Known about the structure:
The structure holds two protein chains of two kinds. By secondary structure, chain A is an alpha/beta fold. Chain A has two domains: 4-22 and 256-295, Orthogonal Bundle (Helix Hairpins), CATH 1.10.287; 34-253, Pyruvate Kinase, Chain: A, domain 1 (3-Layer(aba) Sandwich), CATH 3.40.1380.10. In chain A, 64% of the residues lie in helices and 16% in strands. Chain A has helices spanning 4-60, 68-71, 94-111, 123-133, 152-167, 201-209, 221-295; strands spanning 78-84, 115-121, 137-141, 145-146, 149-150, 173-183, 186-195, 216-218. The longest helix of chain A has 75 residues, at 221-295. Chain A is elongated, with a radius of gyration of 28 Å. The two termini of chain A are 33 Å apart. Chain B is of the alpha+beta class. Chain B is 29% helix and 48% strand. In chain B, a hairpin with a 2-residue loop joins strand 5 (42-55) and strand 6 (58-72). In chain B, helix 1 (92-108) packs antiparallel against helix 2. Chain B starts with a strand and ends with a helix. The chains are: A alpha/beta, B alpha+beta. Chain A binds chain B through residues 38, 41-42, 44-46, 48-49, 52, 55-56, 152, 155, 160, 164, 167, 213-219, 223-224, 227-228, 231, 234-235, 238, and chain B through 8, 10-15, 28-30, 33, 40-45, 69, 71, 73-74, 78, 80, 82, 113, 117. Strand 8 (216-218) of chain A pairs parallel with strand 5 (42-55) of chain B.
Amino acid sequence: xxxxxxxxxxxxxxxxxxxxxxxxxxxxxxxxxxxxxxxxxxxxxxxxxxxxxxxxxxxxxxxxxxxxxxxxxxxxxxxxxxxxxxxxxxxxxxxxxxxxxxxxxxxxxxxxxxxxxxxxxxxxxxxxxxxxxxxxxxxxxxxxxxxxxxxxxxxxxxxxxxxxxxxxxxxxxxxxxxxxxxxxxxxxxxxxxxxxxxxxxxxxxxxxxxxxxxxxxxxxxxxxxxxxxxxxxxxxxxxxxxxxxxxxxxxxxxxxxxxxxxxxxxxxxxxxxxxxxxxxxxxxxxxxxxxxxxxx
Amino acid sequence: xxxxxxxxxxxxxxxxxxxxxxxxxxxxxxxxxxxxxxxxxxxxxxxxxxxxxxxxxxxxxxxxxxxxxxxxxxxxxxxxxxxxxxxxxxxxxxxxxxxxxxxxxxxxxxxxxxxxxxxxxxxxxxxxxxxxxx
Lengths: 296, 134
């Protein structure tokens, strides 16, 4: 049985933990708002880029001269996985779920006899994956999210790296793994193929329905595609970063909310235990005094 | 009320503008082109330069873009720009600093990739200065 002093200090320590978690929750909530706004503001660009590319891709089709980013290298021996995680922990299953999805995919690819290469964005992912796939990590980026949120330039930095590797023939297929933001309490680990480009279904449906007009291209379809496809890589990575950061803050907010609530429950339980044992001690002392008085 | 076309200017981080305009002149890679309502559908890449928005037969707004792509159809003109700043907000000294930085980068560039990047930055800086001087 814990002594009264022990109980008191435990209650005090749980109380200070609760203070920290509730402060973290509030910080996450305000960051989430900003991240969510940024993610929503970036969506129109990515969407329009997607439909435009889809249209172009169907126009160019699988011509001989189609850019490599669209047609692929014709092989799929080497896969590059770009993994987006947070730099910090304490955000529930956020990092774990993305790492798990990556690990499953990497194992499946390895079992098929394919080579896997990894780019880790965010420290936690690199830390979790380096034991198993340490030799496969070709690049890692940390500190993506600055004071003012995520900058497009950091996304282009990662995008340039991916494109440079592709140009050197270092990989054939590139897939990005990130947490898609659904709501503050729900994030979905998503895998999206980046290279070769996969057209959006919307554009294809439009095409099938024959509603899309015939476009003039200036300069040529191929030239525009060659210009747009590399840009699209950066845009998709930027989008993934924003989604991932919104998800991170959402996950941290709900994790910290749970932690705060648990701490509250624990304080209640400990207080009851503390009061009971204090009362027991008082009763004990009284009994001793009374029985002592009676014995006289 | 004259006919208008919807101009949408989108950068990677935000939808900057979505409003009806009478005419807009876009700096296409193969030369400037004006977009009036009911323009035939086309897609064009954009070089670094200035987008002129016309209202009442006069230029009402000038926006600098650092390249991108434009999609035009009879109802709207969508411009995906990497970087877009109103010309009024451009600073001559910043543009000059950018030009010097890009020139230095170009000299230091060793790989074809770096070189291409630096050349692009140089083009952007030159276009900014050109936008400021007229």
